[in-house]
Write a structure and sequence with these properties.
Layout lengths: L1 H13 L19 H21 L3 H14 L5 E4 L3 E6 L4 E6 L7 H16 L8 H23 L7 H18 L4 H23 L4 H22 L12 H14 L3 H9 L3 H31 L16 H18 L4 H23 L4 H23 L3 H8 L6 H12 L5 H31 L49 H4 L5 E4 L5 E4 L8
Antiparallel strand pairs: 1-2, 2-3, 4-5
Length: about 525
């Protein structure tokens, strides 16, 4: 009998705990004003749509939409894809769908949106209020939030378009130096970028699709290289002083910087496979446009008797400190071209220089290019997320702009040139595979660095499929007259920094958790009802 009792106790200990986030739950009875609930869902969807269109990642948008709904104590399910956001409240049978029609990076306005979301999320929770008190408090907060968001989305860019063009030109010149070119290469690369940007601006007004814009940009860059190859023999310039391949590669980096390869890998790592697939397909299509542009010009050049061949370049002649300063200029220029405000652009510039120094250190320790890139990106993600609140600069700006000097522009160009050449083969595919591994390493490093920084600060990582603790019903509930939402009265440059995207959820990470389930994206959906989630 004693052995039987012992066996029963052991069997009882072997039984697992019930799931903290059961599937197929019934909808809770409606206890909120349906119109106020709809306005809440609309506000969350508008914020998510704005962030997606301005350059935020899917995981940051998901967290923001979830936390905004929580702040109003509204239970919702969220389905987020590359171009749409669907939010539904089962208790009232209300759903709101927003479609992202245009995506144009603007870190200045994105910082304003993030600042607004932080104000909403940081306001006292409406949990536990009566029907009348909740409706009154929610409507007052919603009116102020919608009005502020209206002003943000209608605000102008931080800089004029000419300054953006000059920033892109400076960026191309810096990449030319970073790849080992001299001042002449930097000058020609910068002027070529001015030509390309002017042509693309004109074609954009004609509403030409981005695929054809990439073809035109790559064709112009390669055309300049062919022109240099044919005219250098008649100029008082040696070929080694102005290698055409560096001119092309510099402008390719400018074209690649606007792509979302790193963002696609980041979304895939964070549990948004369909969104990542959409971004990845877009990257492949735009990269194919670059291949077509280069291949078309090369074919015309061969028919004209000109051959653009790839030669082995000598080692980079510049000292490390010069290349670090060049990386500072590249990252700062890209941040400015993405409409980041001055303080954010300065921080991004310093991050670019520090990231390049970390990359050089890791390569000298014997790591390969892909591993060194991932290690430098990890340092960037950790430092950027750790200092985002103190510096009041979005971590997204720091990380995205800081990795630009490490983008594999020359590797991609060499691989594409080998593919479009007559004897192209496995070498080009190997180079393109190496470039893809570098991009994946950059994304993985940045994501891991941010997660480590959040864990060391005692915060939960932004990954939506995570385990969170429950909240007891005894949590204090503020009175309705204490619920004051602090929002910016006007769009001043002082709100530039806002807060880091991960930091917007800081007020809730130690408070109201939520239940998580799987969405049609293959990524997560969220039930923002304060129940625990299974990670």
């Amino acid at each position: 009998m004693r052995s039987l009792s012992l066996a029963r106790r052991l069997a009882a200990h072997a039984v697992g705990k019930p799931p903290v986030s059961p599937t197929g739950r019934r909808a809770a009875p409606a206890a909120r004003d349906p119109q106020a609930v709809r306005d809440t869902l609309e506000l969350a969807a508008r914020l998510g749509e704005s962030m997606l269109s301005l350059g935020a990642s899917a995981s940051d948008v998901f967290g923001t939409v979830r936390d905004v709904c929580r702040s109003f104590d509204v239970r919702c399910e969220i389905d987020l894809t590359f171009t749409s956001i669907l939010i539904a409240d089962d208790s009232t049978g209300t759903s709101v769908l927003r479609v992202v029609h245009d995506q144009a990076t603007d870190y200045g306005r994105l910082a304003l949106v993030v600042d607004l979301t932080r104000s909403i999320i940081g306001a006292p929770s409406l949990r536990g209020l009566s029907f009348e008190d909740w409706s009154a408090a929610a409507r007052e907060r919603l009116v102020a939030s919608h009005a502020t968001l209206d002003r943000i989305v209608a605000s102008p860019h931080s800089y004029r378009r000419m300054l953006v063009t000059l920033s892109l030109s400076l960026m191309a010149a810096g990449v030319g130096v970073l790849l080992g070119g001299g001042l002449l290469v930097a000058l020609v690369a910068g002027v070529t970028t001015l030509l390309i940007d002017g042509a693309l601006r004109l074609l954009t007004r004609w509403q030409l699709p981005p695929f054809f814009l990439q073809i035109v940009g790559a064709a112009l860059a390669t055309g300049v290289a062919v022109l240099l190859l044919t005219t250098i023999p008649g100029l008082p310039v040696e070929f080694a002083q102005l290698p055409p391949s560096l001119v092309v590669a510099s402008n390719i980096v400018v074209l690649l910087a606007g792509m979302s390869l790193v963002g696609a890998a980041d979304d895939a790592i964070n549990g948004f496979p369909i969104t990542a697939s959409g971004k990845l397909f877009q990257v492949v299509l735009l990269t194919l446009g670059i291949v077509v542009g280069i291949g078309g010009v090369l074919d015309v050049a061969r028919r004209a008797g000109v051959s653009l061949t790839l030669i082995d370049l000598p080692p980079n002649p510049w000292p490390v400190w010069v290349l670090a300063l060049t990386s500072v200029a590249i990252s700062g220029a890209w941040a400015t071209a993405s409409y980041a405000r001055p303080r954010a652009a300065l921080v991004a510039a310093l991050a670019g220089g520090g990231t390049y120094l970390a990359f050089v250190l890791l390569t000298r320790l014997g790591l390969g290019v892909a591993m060194a890139s991932a290690g430098a990106a990890l340092v960037l993600g950790f430092v950027g997320d750790s200092l985002a609140r103190r510096l009041r600069v979005p971590a997204l700006v720091t990380t995205v702009c800081g990795i630009v000097p490490l983008l594999p522009g020359l590797t991609i160009y060499r691989g594409m040139l080998d593919l479009v050449s007559e004897d192209g083969g496995d070498t080009g595919l190997g180079m393109l595979l190496q470039a893809g591994m570098i991009g994946l390493g950059l994304a993985a490093g940045v994501t891991l660095g941010e997660v480590l920084a959040q864990r060391l600060r005692g915060l939960k990582p932004r990954h939506p499929l995570r385990r969170v603790r429950n909240v007891t019903p005894s949590d204090p509930v503020p009175a309705p007259d204490e619920m004051v939402l602090t929002l910016p009265d006007e769009l001043e440059p002082a709100v530039d920094g806002g807060t880091d995207l991960e930091g917007t959820a800081a007020p809730e990470r130690t408070g109201i958790p939520a239940a998580t389930s799987r969405s049609t994206d293959g990524g997560p959906t969220e039930a923002a009802d304060g129940e625990p989630a299974r990670g």
